Each structure stands twice: as C-alpha cells, then as structure tokens.
C-alpha cells in the first residue's frame, strides 16, 4: 500500500483522482482481509427434559347431577347451595308414606311366615290342634251369621226399591199399577216416553216377583238358597234402576223445553228421582257388602280347615319345604319394598359440596328431572386430549406443571397423570386420547371449568452430552452435525452421530460421535 501511494505521487495525478483511487484500493484490501465468522455451540453435559404440552379443562374429582329413580312429590330437601356433605348423607326425599307402610306390612309377613315354619319344624302340639278346632268353629259360625243376615238385608233392599218405584215416581205416572202406565208429561222423544212406560210396567212385575221370593226366605235357609237370593236381589234392583235412569233423562229433556215459569213441577220430579236413586244405591251397597263378607269368610273357613287338616295329618317334608319357600318369598317382598323406598331418597355417594338445588318441596318430579348437583371435595383434576403422536411418550405417574389462564404463566401448579384412556376420540379429524391429571396439592384458586396449560414431563436425563437440535441434520436415515476443527482457518468436519432423548428446550442427547467441548456449528 505505501508503494502504491508513492507511485501515485510520482505520476502527479490530480488530487481528487488520487483520493478516489486510495479509497477504492483500501476497500479492496480490507475486503480481501475479512473472513466470515462461524457461529457454534460447544457440546456439553447437562440435563435434558422432554415434555408434552397440551391444553385442558379443570374438573372436580367427582361431579354428579342427581335425579330420583321414581316419580313422586318432593317431601323435603335437606341441603342448600354451598353446603358440604358427607358420603351417605341424605340430600332429598320424596313422599314415601305408602311404601313405608307396605314395607312394614312385608316385614310383618316375614315374621308370620318364619313363625309358621318354626312351628312346622317343631310339630303341632295337641293343645294347638284344639285351638285350631275352636278357630274353625268360630269361622264357620261367623259365616252362618253372615248368611243369616241375608233376609234382613234383602227385605230392606226390597223396601227401598219399592219406595223408589211406587212412591217416589208416583207423580210421574197415571195407571201406575196397571199394565199400561202413562207418563204425566210429554218427553222430548216418543222412544224415551215409550221406554219409560214399559220399564215402569217391568219394575212392577219385578217387585212383585221379588216379594214372593223373599216370603219363603228365612234365617235358616241353606247357603245355596241365600246366595241365589242375593244374586236375584241384584237383578231386581237393576230393573228398578234402569227405570229411574230413563225417567231422569225424560224429565231433564222435557224441562229444558219449557219456559222457566212453569218448570217447578219438573224440578220436583227431579228431586223424586234423586231420592229414589239414592235409595237404590244404598240397597246395592248393602247387598254388595254382605256378598263380600260372605266371600271373605268362606276363605277364612277354608284356610282354617286346611290348617287343621294339616295339623291332624302331621307335617310332611314337602309341607316344610313349601313353608320355607313362603319365607323366601316374604323376604324377597321385603327386599323389593326396601329397593322401592331407596328410590325415594337421594343420598350422597361421596363427600362434596352442593353446587345447585333446582327444585323445591312439593314439586312433582319425574326420573328425568334434575334435583341436586354435587361436586366432590379433594384434589381437582385436569382432562386433556393427547395427540396420537405424543401418546407413546405419556405414562401414568408422569409429573406435570400447570398454569391457568385465569392467573397467568407465572403462577405454577403441580400435577401428575393418573389415567390415560385406552380408546381414542377423534377431535377435528385427529385421533386423540384423553388423559386425566390430578393436582398434587389443594389450592383454593383452582376452580372447576378453568382452562389449564399443561406441560407433562415425559422423560428426563441428567449428565448427558447434548447438542442443539437445530444443528442436527438427517441424510439417508443418518444424523450428522458440523464440527468446527480450526476456528482460525474455518476448517469444519461433517460428523455422524447417534442421538438419544430429544428435549423440549431445543437440545438433543448425543450418544455417540461427539466429545464434550466440540464446537458444533449452528448454521
């Protein structure tokens, strides 16, 4: 450079040209001297951490919306929102008095059947047989008494029917007791009028026949005669009731066609018919009650007779087996009502906090109506979907750090994986697996429904040699890095390596091919 300057001076070039040439020559010289600097990172030992990052949602450890298993009316709700409840605590109940009564009856039946079985096993004592004979005699006498009351009941029924037809409807007919009775008013249809008149004649015939039947009936008549008389009484009453129904229709239609000023007569007719129907209904009821008493008492007599016969014959093995079966059936009946009773009570299956009470006492509910909501106490959980490309890196027991959007990235919580679903779920076209993590510590800031950012620690190696992941290239299935051998002269070497764990922070374990301190070129 000095020689070149001397040359310029000797030639005596103009000063501006000389300056320009000096600048150009200096630039070329400097450019020739400049060398590109290579960026590198030394291979060193340390800790490599591999994590899987996912986003999930906070869930309580348990969450349940309660509904009754049967329909009914809510009797009482025992909890309020925010109340902590223990496992097994009653939350709400339906009105179940009927089931409680049925259960008590079923339990009493078990006691009775068990006592009968014990008696069969012990055998019948002579004094017990005498008790059965007395019981049978009383049952038979009670049945005879029922039969003996039949004439009084039937005569009373006849009197009521006779008054209903002959007295209460007297004003509605002329020629009542003749073969051609006539209505004293015009019905709205000729058919109704004809029916009423014909049925009045039929009622007279039935009443006369009934009176003759009752004349030969006494308290000592046979059971068969008494039962036939009761059936016949019902038949005669039906004839009278048919007449009254037809008359009622006739009076109703006739009075509706008249002016209000002349309907008093028809109002009186209606009163007569109402009185008559009440008398007939009472007669029907009395006969029905007696028939029911007789039927029930016949069953009592039969059962008592069978019991006595069994005692006299002795207890055979098949009798004992049959009674044992009755005991089992009675116990099953108790179990059934216990199950029905349980359906009317909501109890907490786990300890927790009430989050919602939907209905009130007195409300009628179906099995689909939600009543109470409960979340469990204890450590909250995170549910997150793991992509199939990462699922092999996750195991139950892996630890994780969690941040919540509500509190920002600086507030860190800790959790661990407690469950991984074995079946996949497709989310936006990608197969994923649900993983459940549980917080290792309780914290009042953790609330159900918050969004969680989770970094799951899948693997960790300490004191291993590593290099920047971005410096590793793959060619034909082999991995290489570029190592700077001579920094001054920029001499590099392409080195094949074997890698191990790939970290989440941009580093990868180098198992073979590098030595600690080697300068790995990054670019």
Task: Please characterize this protein's 3D structure.
With about 525 residues, this protein is of the alpha+beta class. The chain has 4 domains: about 1-35; about 65-95 and about 345-375, OB fold (Dihydrolipoamide Acetyltransferase, E2P) (Beta Barrel); about 125-315, no CATH class; about 380-520, Efflux pump adaptor protein, beta barrel domain (Elongation Factor Tu (Ef-tu), domain 3, Beta Barrel). It is about 45% helix and about 30% strand. The chain has helices spanning about 1-10, 15-35, 95-120, 125-150, 150-165, 190-215, 225-255, 265-315, 315-340, 390; strands at about 40, 45-60, 65, 70-75, 85, 90-95, 175, 180-185, 345, 350-355, 365, 370-375, 380-385, 400-405, 410-420, 425, 430-440, 450-470, 475, 480-485, 490-500, 505-510, 520. The strands form 5 sheets. Strands 2-13-17-15-14-18 form a 6-stranded antiparallel barrel. The chain has a 4-stranded antiparallel beta sheet with strand order 3-12-10-5, with no helix packed on it. It has a 4-stranded antiparallel beta sheet with strand order 9-6-4-11, with no helix packed on it. The chain is elongated and about 150 Å long. The two termini are about 35 Å apart. Residues about 1-15, about 25-35 and about 255-260 have low confidence and may be disordered.
């Amino acid at each position: 450079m000095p020689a070149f300057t001397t040359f310029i001076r000797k030639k005596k070039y103009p000063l501006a040209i000389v300056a320009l040439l000096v600048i150009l020559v200096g630039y070329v010289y400097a450019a020739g001297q400049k060398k590109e600097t290579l960026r590198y990172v030394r291979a060193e030992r340390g800790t490599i951490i591999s994590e899987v990052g996912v986003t999930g949602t906070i869930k309580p450890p348990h969450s349940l919306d309660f509904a009754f298993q049967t329909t009914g009316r809510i009797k009482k709700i025992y909890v309020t929102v925010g109340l902590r409840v223990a496992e097994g605590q009653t939350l709400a109940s339906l009105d179940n008095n009927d089931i409680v009564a049925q259960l008590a009856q079923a339990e009493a039946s078990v006691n009775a059947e068990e006592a009968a079985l014990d008696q069969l096993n012990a055998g019948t004592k002579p004094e017990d047989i005498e008790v059965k004979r007395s019981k049978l005699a009383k049952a038979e006498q009670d049945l005879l008494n029922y039969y003996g009351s039949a004439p009084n009941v039937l005569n009373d029924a006849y009197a009521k029917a006779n008054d209903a037809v002959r007295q209460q409807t007297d004003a509605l007919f002329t020629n009542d007791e003749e073969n051609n009775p006539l209505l004293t008013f015009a019905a709205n249809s000729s058919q109704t009028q004809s029916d009423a008149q014909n049925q009045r004649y039929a009622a007279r015939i039935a009443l006369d026949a009934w009176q003759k039947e009752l004349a030969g009936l006494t308290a000592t008549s046979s059971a068969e005669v008494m039962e036939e008389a009761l059936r016949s009484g019902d038949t005669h009453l039906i004839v009278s009731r048919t007449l009254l129904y037809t008359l009622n229709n006739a009076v109703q239609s006739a009075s509706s066609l008249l002016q209000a000023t002349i309907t008093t007569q028809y109002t009186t007719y209606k009163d007569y018919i109402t009185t008559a129907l009440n008398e007939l209904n009472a007669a029907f009821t009395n006969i029905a009650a007696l028939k029911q008493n007789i039927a029930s008492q016949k069953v009592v007599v039969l059962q008592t007779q069978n019991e006595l016969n069994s005692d006299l014959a002795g207890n055979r093995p098949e009798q004992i087996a049959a009674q044992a079966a009755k005991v089992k059936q009675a116990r099953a009946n108790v179990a059934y009502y216990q199950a029905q009773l349980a359906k009317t009570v909501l109890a907490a299956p786990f300890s927790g906090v009430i989050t919602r009470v939907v209905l009130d006492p007195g409300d009628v509910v179906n099995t689909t109506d939600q009543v109470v909501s409960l979340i469990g106490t204890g450590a909250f959980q995170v549910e997150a979907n793991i992509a199939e490309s990462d699922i092999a890196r996750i195991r139950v027991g892996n630890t994780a750090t969690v941040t919540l959007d509500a509190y920002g990235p600086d507030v860190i919580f800790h959790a661990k994986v407690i469950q991984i679903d074995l079946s996949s779920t497709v989310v936006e076209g990608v197969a994923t697996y649900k993983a459940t993590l549980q917080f290792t510590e309780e914290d009042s800031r953790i609330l159900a429904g918050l969004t969680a950012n989770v970094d799951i620690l899948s693997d960790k190696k300490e004191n291993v040699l590593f290099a920047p992941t971005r410096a590793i290239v793959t060619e034909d299935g082999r991995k290489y890095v570029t190592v700077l051998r001579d920094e001054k002269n920029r001499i590099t070497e392409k080195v094949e390596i074997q890698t191990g764990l790939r970290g989440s922070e941009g580093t990868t374990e180098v198992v073979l091919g590098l030595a600690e301190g080697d300068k790995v070129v990054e670019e």
